[in-house]
Amino acid sequence: MGKKKKTSGGFRLPVLSFFSVFNRLAVALPERARRMAVSVLFIAVAVIFVFAFFDKAGTAGNLLLQGTEFLLGRVRFLVPGILLLGAFVLWGMRKYNMGVVFAMLGLFVSGMSGVLGSLIRFQNKQAFDAAGLIGGGLSWLAFSAFGFWVSEVLFSAAIAVCGVVLWQLLPHEKMEEGGFAQATQEKIRKIFEPKLRMEEVETVPTVKDGSTDEEEEEEKEGKAKKKGKTPAPKAKPLFAASMGDYKAPGIELLDPQKGTTADAGDVKTYSAIIKKTLQNFDIPVEVSEVNVGPAVAQYAFKPAEGIKLSRITALQNDLALALAAHPIRIEAPIPGRALVGVEIPNKVRAVVGIRELFEAKQFQDSTAPLLLALGKDVSGAPIFADLAKMPHLLVAGATGSGKTIGLNNIIISLIYRNPPSNLRLILVDPKRVEFPVYNDLPHMLTPVILDTQRTVNALKWLLKEMDRRFQLFSEVRVRDIGSYHALQKENQKKISVSSEGEEMEEVPYIVAVLDELADLMAVRGKEIEGMIVRLAQMARAVGIHLVLATQRPSVEVITGLIKANITSRVAFQVASQIDSRTILDMAGAEKLLGRGDMLFVSSEFQKPRRIQGAYISDKEVKKIVETIAQENESFDRKQIEENNTGQSAMESLESRADLDGEDDPLYEEAKRLVLETRKASASFLQRRLKLGYARAARLLDILEEKGIVGPSDGAKPREVYGNATSDSVEGIKEEGDWETPKL
């Protein structure tokens, strides 16, 4: 008996294994792939039938034909056409289940067999010989119950229903545009087009990948084509460039993503482990869904009533031990839902290509000129953010966390959507190796800034430009740059129609990207902080935006004033929880995975949103910049710079290595401090203004040149002339109680 069981089990095991593998493969395939496979199978069987009719299909073909003749009789000659019809419908349909097609085809065959069987019975002949087992049986039942005429009506109605349903499933838009051949070619092109589709990640029915449903996507494309709208092959600039010869970059410059798809492992096993581990601590939960993203899989579960969330978050290390995964992150609760999420790193991470985001419908259809393509969230949905609404961004992350690639994504997103007449860039790179590749861009307001002094000068110029734009907006009575651009378009229409009115000044957006803020703050901290805070408070309305980045998010770099005025922040992986709290005001960034894994906080989200950042290589960046520079060689950059952005004024400001005393933002404060305290020394100014010795000594020399303090006299303190109520040196001179010392 033991041997029989062993033999029986050994015989059944390969068969069961084959069907289980086949079943898993069918479930894992996306709906579209299954439809295509069945369509090809239908076509192959139809060809076999045709060969069998001419006795060219061998023994197996003859057996297939004999079996069909036994079931359907003469209707067997219609089987190849019916199979081709089914293949055509499956190939082109969008949102219906394949079971509907199978049911309609079966009903169609049955109706034809029934019509033939009833007609033969009416002629008093043997229906089973001509209509087969199915037709003869159906005709016998209908003929016995209703008679000939009603039977024919019923079978004809069944055929008509099948025709109507199958007609509704056909791709009408494709047929109208170019017939079946064109539709087939387009379908084949879409199948082999190298796109990273997140539905391939799905392994079990309960898993949600968050990507756009294939059928819904195709239905939207069909509606757009029906209305005469075709998807754009590349992202077009939203504002028409004032120079007609400027050529925007094409989407083909970005490499199509060919990376591996995400693999979350056995999600059923992980769900069971999470549930069992929490139950061991008397926390009953029910797993609701699993969202597989590019970097992590989020297991969402609903705790029982009366369970405190703090009890669940306190078990983070216990869950990590049970799952043998590190690091894990618990989001309690998931914003907007009555669920708790446990995020577990995928066994295989997917790469999110920036081209995939640029081709997304949200990015193509958006009218926001400063829309940034950030990446994909934990459910695989693309995430975009409008810099104009932020309106400034703070970025922090340790070395190797993907911060520089994130900054490249921001810059490339901006130049893909805007011509130079609508966007100008100021890039600061103290490391001298990250941004110089952008020097050839016509969008650049000035060559990449590499030293601290020029950074200070650039920030000063931004403050002056901000004040100038406020004055301009007040003259034309608009509140912000969006209203100004709308008024400018109306004015251009009036000029083109009636030649009345004056040409309005071009006012582009200005985005300043400062990398390695820590290096700048270490040298000119107090001064740079003051200018950044003033720009953050006021510059949004006039179209000036800041992107600040640092790999050392300490309180000395990201001060309280900067954090208070820049609420939108991106945190890549950081070294410690303290750094995470500095940038986000909460823990979490220290548990990220690196390589673009980030937490994004803005005014739109109450809690940080986890995103896998998009990847763009240095090769792609270089290719984009070189293409823009080559295709726009005739672009009159100098004229645009002088007319639109005051480039000449900025260059003259940057060329001065030593600032005039009254141009120094701390000059007035130093003068007031000296007049109030009656003390004048470099060490005193260092302590009170938190300056370096060189700058404090220079301020003291300027005060001496202006006649506010006397010359140095050995160990004696300098004399201070005038008092704190005097508005200027000239006002002090009018008092007549002192003479300007001769130096």
UniProtKB/TrEMBL annotation:
<dbReference type="Pfam" id="PF01580">
    <property type="entry name" value="FtsK_SpoIIIE"/>
</dbReference>
<dbReference type="InterPro" id="IPR018541">
    <property type="entry name" value="Ftsk_gamma"/>
</dbReference>
<dbReference type="InterPro" id="IPR036259">
    <property type="entry name" value="MFS_trans_sf"/>
</dbReference>
<keyword id="KW-1133">Transmembrane helix</keyword>
<dbReference type="GO" id="GO:0005524">
    <property type="term" value="F:ATP binding"/>
</dbReference>
<feature type="binding site">
    <location>
        <begin position="397"/>
        <end position="404"/>
    </location>
    <ligand>
        <name>ATP</name>
    </ligand>
</feature>
<feature type="transmembrane region" description="Helical">
    <location>
        <begin position="127"/>
        <end position="147"/>
    </location>
</feature>
<comment type="similarity">
    <text>Belongs to the FtsK/SpoIIIE/SftA family.</text>
</comment>
<feature type="transmembrane region" description="Helical">
    <location>
        <begin position="153"/>
        <end position="170"/>
    </location>
</feature>
<dbReference type="InterPro" id="IPR050206">
    <property type="entry name" value="FtsK/SpoIIIE/SftA"/>
</dbReference>
<dbReference type="GO" id="GO:0003677">
    <property type="term" value="F:DNA binding"/>
</dbReference>
<feature type="transmembrane region" description="Helical">
    <location>
        <begin position="36"/>
        <end position="54"/>
    </location>
</feature>
<keyword id="KW-0812">Transmembrane</keyword>
<dbReference type="InterPro" id="IPR002543">
    <property type="entry name" value="FtsK_dom"/>
</dbReference>
<dbReference type="InterPro" id="IPR041027">
    <property type="entry name" value="FtsK_alpha"/>
</dbReference>
<protein>
    <recommendedName>
        <fullName>FtsK domain-containing protein</fullName>
    </recommendedName>
</protein>
<feature type="region of interest" description="Disordered">
    <location>
        <begin position="711"/>
        <end position="743"/>
    </location>
</feature>
<dbReference type="Pfam" id="PF09397">
    <property type="entry name" value="FtsK_gamma"/>
</dbReference>
<keyword id="KW-0067">ATP-binding</keyword>
<keyword id="KW-0547">Nucleotide-binding</keyword>
<dbReference type="InterPro" id="IPR036390">
    <property type="entry name" value="WH_DNA-bd_sf"/>
</dbReference>
<feature type="domain" description="FtsK">
    <location>
        <begin position="380"/>
        <end position="581"/>
    </location>
</feature>
<keyword id="KW-0472">Membrane</keyword>
<feature type="transmembrane region" description="Helical">
    <location>
        <begin position="99"/>
        <end position="120"/>
    </location>
</feature>
<feature type="compositionally biased region" description="Basic and acidic residues">
    <location>
        <begin position="730"/>
        <end position="743"/>
    </location>
</feature>
<feature type="transmembrane region" description="Helical">
    <location>
        <begin position="75"/>
        <end position="93"/>
    </location>
</feature>
<feature type="region of interest" description="Disordered">
    <location>
        <begin position="638"/>
        <end position="661"/>
    </location>
</feature>
<feature type="region of interest" description="Disordered">
    <location>
        <begin position="202"/>
        <end position="234"/>
    </location>
</feature>
<dbReference type="Pfam" id="PF17854">
    <property type="entry name" value="FtsK_alpha"/>
</dbReference>
<dbReference type="InterPro" id="IPR036388">
    <property type="entry name" value="WH-like_DNA-bd_sf"/>
</dbReference>
<keyword id="KW-0238">DNA-binding</keyword>
<dbReference type="InterPro" id="IPR027417">
    <property type="entry name" value="P-loop_NTPase"/>
</dbReference>
